[in-house]
UniProtKB/TrEMBL annotation:
Residues annotated as the enzyme's active site: 327-328
Pathway given in the UniProt record: Amino-acid biosynthesis; L-histidine biosynthesis; L-histidine from 5-phospho-alpha-D-ribose 1-diphosphate: step 9/9
Origin: domain of life: Bacteria
Pfam families, per database record: Histidinol_dh
Name of the protein in question: Histidinol dehydrogenase
Upper lineage: Bacteria, Bacillati, Bacillota, Clostridia, Peptostreptococcales
Swiss-Prot/TrEMBL cofactor(s): Zn(2+)
Chain residues that bind substrate: 237, 259, 262, 328, 361, 415, 420
């Protein structure tokens, strides 16, 4: 189970060295097979897509077809509980309301013959990858689709791996239907990424690909970046909880476990000012783990990437958090709002004892597609801004350009770009005669 360590002075540095040893995926091990898949789909279209789907998923989709039919959406509603549908609709309202506040508008300004501005345009077509097969995630449908819709994206296509019978998760289909996503394909893996990036007879190419997937999906997204845009390459899930003596050890342990169950590489960390709390949390972790279905995964995650760290005060704790830059940061302290300003690096920040990380995963409104592996130092959560383009707009009248022409020509000459200088000069040659 998790070790308890006291961090003081130079011991912090040794801890960070240890933390950075956390296993990371070497994409080189997957690049060659993924490149073969990408090339096959790029050159063979649907034939390549169907071949690799049969090879990896054991499914022949020639008869069933790649695209999910309308009756399958209707059937999905009969396969899920009514309380799921109602909870989904409430989550959609919260997520849409939050992302509506991120909407950006074009702006323009004028002065003495000059018109400047920025034109905001939504990306035309976006592909959303939703994990499927044995583990399906309707929440991924919501978090990736809603900001695109709020941004004004007109073409949204979804791909998701089918099960062994060639069927798509009912929960995923209901989520898509609730959002009005009609173009859904039962295909996953690197071959689905290839189809989105290059297009096939059945799937029209997109301009951007978003959504999580396994290592083959992540490798494929890296490879097609440049042909299309992508959101980010997500690493293993992680949570860091900062807690003082007011925290409930049962709550803290439950929150750590909620991330540890993702996979064996997930990281669950606790920073606390109370050694007593740390010991109580460790006991709770042992007790609660016995009751959970994914016990084996949790135990490996906590043993390899879990840690309870005792620090002298909360200021040191926040400083450590900023260095780690976690995907999820929980402030389970008496006065969480007093620490908020000091937090600089975190994908999402959860304040107080009754704001657990799963609340953000599903329902609260902020996006759960977050930077991992320390990239919160320079990346932000998925947002409406990820689905728009910005174009600069410039207009100068003849007189306005005349006022600045010497400055422009001087700067062009300094760089040795005489054609640039001439572009300005020719417009006023008649004036000099």
């Amino acid at each position: 189970m998790m070790d308890i360590i006291k961090l003081q002075g130079k011991e912090n540095q040794s801890f960070f060295k240890e933390l950075k040893k956390r296993t990371t995926v070497d994409f080189k091990d997957y690049e060659k097979p993924v490149e073969e898949i990408l090339e096959a789909v790029k050159t063979q279209g649907d034939a390549g897509l169907l071949e690799y789907t049969q090879r990896f998923d054991g499914i022949d989709l020639k008869e069933r077809g790649l695209r999910v039919r309308e009756e399958e959406f209707d059937e999905a509603y009969n396969l899920v509980e009514e309380d799921f549908i109602q909870a989904l609709r409430r989550a959609i309202d919260n997520i849409r309301s939050y992302h509506e506040r991120q909407r950006q508008n074009s702006w323009f300004t004028t002065s003495e013959g000059i018109f400047l501005g920025q034109k905001v345009t939504p990306i035309a077509r976006v592909g959303i990858y939703v994990p499927g097969g044995t583990a399906a995630y309707p929440s991924s449908v919501l978090m990736n689709t809603i900001p695109a819709q709020v941004a004004g994206v007109k073409g949204i296509v979804m791909v998701t791996p089918p099960d062994r019978e060639g069927k798509v998760s009912p929960g995923v289909l209901v989520a898509a239907k609730e959002l009005g996503v009609k173009e859904v394909y039962r295909v996953g893996g690197a071959q689905a990424v290839a189809a989105l990036a290059f297009g096939t007879e059945s799937i029209k190419r997109v301009d951007k690909i978003v959504g999580p997937g396994n290592i083959y999906v992540a490798t494929a997204k890296r490879a097609v970046y440049g042909y299309v845009d992508i959101d980010m390459i997500a690493g293993p899930s992680e949570v860091l909880v900062i807690a003082d003596e007011t925290a409930n050890p049962k709550f803290v342990a439950a929150d750590l476990l909620s991330q540890a169950e993702h996979d064996e590489m997930a990281s669950a960390l606790l920073i606390t000012t109370s050694e007593k709390l740390g010991m109580e949390v460790r006991e709770e972790l042992i007790r609660q783990t016995q009751q959970l279905e994914r016990r084996d995964i949790i135990e490996k995650s906590l043993r390899n990437y879990g840690k309870i760290m005792v620090v002298e005060d909360l200021k040191i704790g926040v400083a450590l958090a900023n260095e780690i830059a976690p995907e999820h940061l929980e402030l389970c302290v008496e006065k969480p709002f007093e620490l908020l300003d000091a937090v600089e690096n975190a994908g999402a920040i959860f304040l107080g004892h009754y704001t657990p990380e799963p609340l953000g995963d599903y329902f609260a409104g902020p996006n759960h597609v977050l930077p991992t592996s320390g990239t919160a130092k320079f990346y932000s959560p998925l947002s409406v801004e990820d689905f728009i383009k910005k174009s600069s707009v410039i207009y100068y009248s003849q007189e306005a350009l005349r006022q600045v022409k010497e400055d422009v020509m001087t700067l062009a000459a300094e760089e040795g770009l005489t054609a640039h200088k001439n572009s300005i000069k020719v417009r006023y040659e008649d004036d000099d005669k």
